[in-house]
Amino acid sequence: MDTIKDYLGKNRERFLDELIQLLKIPSISADPAFKKDMLTAAEAVKKSLLDAGCDLVEVCETPGHPVVFAEKIKDKDLPTVLVYGHYDVQPPDPLDLWDSPPFEPVIKKTKIHPEGAIFARGACDDKGQMFMHVKAMEYMTQNDVLPCNVKFMIEGEEEVGSAHLDWFIKENKDRLSNDVILISDTGMISREAPSITTGLRGLSYVEVEVTGPNRDLHSGLYGGAVANPLNILSQMIASLTDENNHITIPGFYDKVEQLSDEERSKMAEAPFNLEEYKKKLDIEDVYGEKGYSTLERGSIRPTLDVNGMWGGYIGEGAKTVLPSKAHAKISMRLVPDQDWKEITELFKKHFESIAPKSVKVEVKPHHGGFPYVTPINTIGYQAASKAYEQTFGKTPIPQRSGGSIPIVTLFEKELKSKIILMGFGLDTDAIHSPNEHFGVWNYLKGIETIPWFYKYFTEMSK
Amino acid sequence: MDTIKDYLGKNRERFLDELIQLLKIPSISADPAFKKDMLTAAEAVKKSLLDAGCDLVEVCETPGHPVVFAEKIKDKDLPTVLVYGHYDVQPPDPLDLWDSPPFEPVIKKTKIHPEGAIFARGACDDKGQMFMHVKAMEYMTQNDVLPCNVKFMIEGEEEVGSAHLDWFIKENKDRLSNDVILISDTGMISREAPSITTGLRGLSYVEVEVTGPNRDLHSGLYGGAVANPLNILSQMIASLTDENNHITIPGFYDKVEQLSDEERSKMAEAPFNLEEYKKKLDIEDVYGEKGYSTLERGSIRPTLDVNGMWGGYIGEGAKTVLPSKAHAKISMRLVPDQDWKEITELFKKHFESIAPKSVKVEVKPHHGGFPYVTPINTIGYQAASKAYEQTFGKTPIPQRSGGSIPIVTLFEKELKSKIILMGFGLDTDAIHSPNEHFGVWNYLKGIETIPWFYKYFTEMSK
């Protein structure tokens, strides 16, 4: 019987190559043009799970993109781990900022990844991290060391708000029953400071449209006399934050959990170098809510970001147009105990109320999710912590992340089990950005750590 | 000998068809992809001027798009009219808002144009209006009633700020010598209320770029902690106007001419129906600088309009990105005695000064032009007024327009002659917008009116 280290040594190249093949499929869930590629990706995931030793694997239809479900049931009396991940990826644009095409993966060395990193859309988020679980499964079945039952639920709509996962879970509650849910779709602080995510921010994502005149106008003839939707939208967006970068939507902060001084000083102990942070981003200064540190602004405080904005003439050269419409995509990251549906309503009501009479405003909610905080005194967390100690030689730091996996609160509510967020990516991996990548070291370290989690979780569950 | 009315009766269909052929050429000066089409259009204009009876016609190279120059010199002692126009057009986008393709002209009846209007990019601005002069010339030479010398200067860069016309005029001063400059590149109030433009606003057009982090970031991990260029740009743009819609750039109003109460009450006599104006644009209310009427806001007051804005994810669906960059195209319409170069400098300095330390800002001036006001006690204006009386049966109203023809002040400065702005378009012709059109009635009325101007101008110059 091989240890996981032996097995990794023997299969390193194949593990990399298999991931690269998966990364070549442009499974962009947001764009209907890639619907066929979504199916191709789902089938590829299905095959990999069969190869990894699952007994039953199924590409399950949903009203949107399919979910890949798989399981290996050893014994009904043993505990069951449910692995969640996603095979869809973010749109890759702006394409011109990629050093190599997003769906032609290449391995390149970087300062942070001296062993090389795989550059491709989805390398880290989430194909690479999801595939660690497939390969860990392969190791355990091939070497007959799988200590418990395993289920996989790999969806294709995470990047579009898990539009139909709610439906899928409710339809398949019994089939998905489990004792713990394991997800690798977050990051860790660094190689030297491994961490486990214990909190996620919630999300409310909306799209707004401001309409002025019924057609684009000549800005010379009408400028100054007719409301310009771009000027108005800028003013409306600007008014959503005050001079201290507090969000001005009435009621927005009502349910925000206030951390105790003790909790805040504990947070402040996490390794963080502000100068290095600014240098990496090439910014002269950070920017955010008054009274909070950068780490706090990015994790325990809610935000309001414009994710996209457009209107008027955006081509080469000059066009003197007073546009009929202006658009923005705006997202708010939420923290406990904000309710995303309530926040979406508050936003809509407020945004409509601040529009001058000269324009019409439409607010379209996209999707959202609740914030999530997981306790660290559970068997699942303790098993994960011991697994990291085994492979990193250090106790991982529990850390609240600024990101969102909107679906986690649903998991807890519907499936009644705790979620363990074992993420192996780094902040610098440029997920959702051009040149997304995932360190080869991180990928292999993930595969190495996961079987230890199964072992400890099964032992501790007895 | 035919009267102009007879000649129009016989040649109506041909005059329409020839314009339609010219409108089929996509001569978009702003976009380098259409360079070849620009040459095709220049050659077509050349041919039309030769056919109209000019003795000498030349497509003159410039460092940019060429200028078509033509002349017919009858007698050096007779006065000379210089006709200025342009064969380039605005970019047609957004294409999906056109009811028919912008370069496939169609004639359709509208409420305002019961005889039909030609729908095409450039129909009114300025191919249609420029071509009226070509056809009026044809009538005068064919019927031997041309009373004076004529020169044509038809450029290809008006929609990109007449980038090289300055150079061309300085290089060809003698050749361009004239007694009056005639331009049809403006509008009139209505069929029932013909008007001659006596003032134009100036222009300063700039493009701004706000850069935050050196790459697009995940808005969950960085949102709230790093300046978002789209939020910042919105705030910066919003701060450029105050609660009364005054522009806040220091020094911006210093040189703005204040009209006397008498002048303002005279302006207020121009026919204008606010309810109809709002209805046509489908807006609930107008919007503009406090203390000024809609007509004033659109003509005697300076403005600041965002003509285009973009950044982040603007595709289908949602992407939670904190973009690295945000962009805007901003234009200011200027009034006497604002200096566009000075205003551009004031803008740049102010805009850079209001940027927070967390972002970098770049301001790129595009182009500009001085505001212009023409006196009405000149022979040129009087001749034009008499020509309108002849064909409209009414004395035209002198009117200051909100638009800009940046080059007119240069004409006056370099060529030492007055400019007459005989425009036959209507406000509703949607120039610079989707579904630009030019009334068949207006086109023919222009051709009918122009020869009368030549006649009266020559007579009054004796």
Write the layout of secondary structure elements.
The structure is a homodimer of 462-residue chains.
Chain A: H1 4-23, H2 35-51, E1 56-60, E2 67-72, E3 80-86, E4 106-108, E5 117-119, H3 127-142, E6 149-155, H4 165-171, E7 180-183, E8 195-200, E9 202-211, E10 217-218, H5 219-222, H6 229-238, H7 261-267, H8 274-281, H9 294-297, E11 305-312, E12 321-322, E13 325-334, H10 340-353, E14 360-369, E15 372-373, H11 379-392, E16 397-400, H12 408-415, E17 418-421, E18 437-439, H13 440-461
Parallel strand pairs in A: 3-6, 3-7, 7-17, 8-16
Antiparallel strand pairs in A: 1-2, 2-6, 4-5, 5-18, 8-15, 9-13, 9-14, 10-12, 11-13
Helix pairs in contact in A: 1-3, 1-13, 3-13, 11-13
Explain the overall architecture.
The structure is a homodimer of 462-residue chains. The first copy, chain A, has two domains: 4-200 and 371-461, Zn peptidases (Aminopeptidase), CATH 3.40.630.10; 203-256 and 302-369, Alpha-Beta Plaits (2-Layer Sandwich), CATH 3.30.70.360. The longest helix of chain A is centred in the C-terminal third of the chain and has 22 residues, at 440-461. The model of chain A has no long low-confidence stretch (mean pLDDT 95). A six-stranded mixed β-sheet of chain A has the order 1-2-6-3-7-17, sandwiched between helices. A four-stranded antiparallel β-sheet of chain A has the order 11-13-9-14, with helices on one face. In chain A, helix 1 (4-23) crosses helix 3 (127-142), helix 1 (4-23) crosses helix 13 and helix 11 (379-392) crosses helix 13 (440-461). The radius of gyration of chain A is 23 Å and the shape is globular. Chain A is built from 13 helices and 18 strands. Chain A is α+β, with helices and mostly antiparallel strands and 462 residues long. Chain A has helices at residues 4-23, 35-51, 127-142, 165-171, 219-222, 229-238, 261-267, 274-281, 294-297, 340-353, 379-392, 408-415, 440-461; strands at residues 56-60, 67-72, 80-86, 106-108, 117-119, 149-155, 180-183, 195-200, 202-211, 217-218, 305-312, 321-322, 325-334, 360-369, 372-373, 397-400, 418-421, 437-439. Chains A and B meet through strand 9, strand 10, helix 5, helix 6 and helix 9 of A and strand 9, strand 10, helix 5, helix 6 and helix 9 of B. Chains A, B: Residues 199-357 form the Peptidase M20 dimerisation domain. Chains A, B: This is Dipeptidase. Chains A, B: InterPro entries: Bact_exopeptidase_dim_dom, Cyt/Met_Dipeptidase, Peptidase_M20, Peptidase_M20_dimer. Chains A, B: Pfam families: M20_dimer, Peptidase_M20. Chains A, B: One of its GO terms (biological process) is proteolysis.
